[in-house]
Amino acid sequence: MTNEQIAQDLLSQFGEEKIFGIVENYGLLNVTTTTETIVPLLHYLYQHPVFKFQFLTDLGGIHFPDAKGQELGVIYHLHSLENNVRLIVKLHVPIDAPDVPTLTGLYATANWMEREAFDFYGINFVGHPNLIRILNVEDMDYFPMRKEYPLEDATREDKIDALFGR
């Protein structure tokens, strides 16, 4: 089973309008899809008689503030344990409507990973059984991993710029 075979199978099953951005980075196949296609796509990969991507290794949120209409995203790292092949699936959503369908019905591991992505990026996983903050305090009114804040606090007076090479 090669990355080319997986890509061709996905294109023939879903079409170029639903599976796009196909690249191979460091031997890992990366595909991009839409929020409408993510659940059927991952069900297909899970139940495929050859591919068997039945392990969700990781799920993470991303924030690209300059990508208008696609500021937030989710990256799914899938693993076929039987074939020892990995696959990365991405999707992007606008920051003003960060709704992505949950995958907790397919992958039990998605539960906490989706809660973490919600907690830090504000991605709303529609249908999640318990989408509440997991690491930050419950009354927090912002999402700390979004690139909306300066990297340094300009008001700090306890640091000497010369010690930091400035």
From TrEMBL:
TM region(s), chain numbering: none
A Pfam family recorded for this sequence: Complex1_30kDa
Location of the NADH:ubiquinone oxidoreductase 30kDa subunit domain: 32-153
InterPro entries in alphabetical order: NADH_quin_OxRdtase_su_C/D-like (IPR037232), NADH_UbQ_OxRdtase_30kDa_su (IPR001268)
MF terms (GO), sorted A to Z: NADH dehydrogenase (ubiquinone) activity
Family indicated by similarity: Belongs to the complex I 30 kDa subunit family.
Protein name: NADH dehydrogenase subunit C
Organism: Pseudarcicella hirudinis
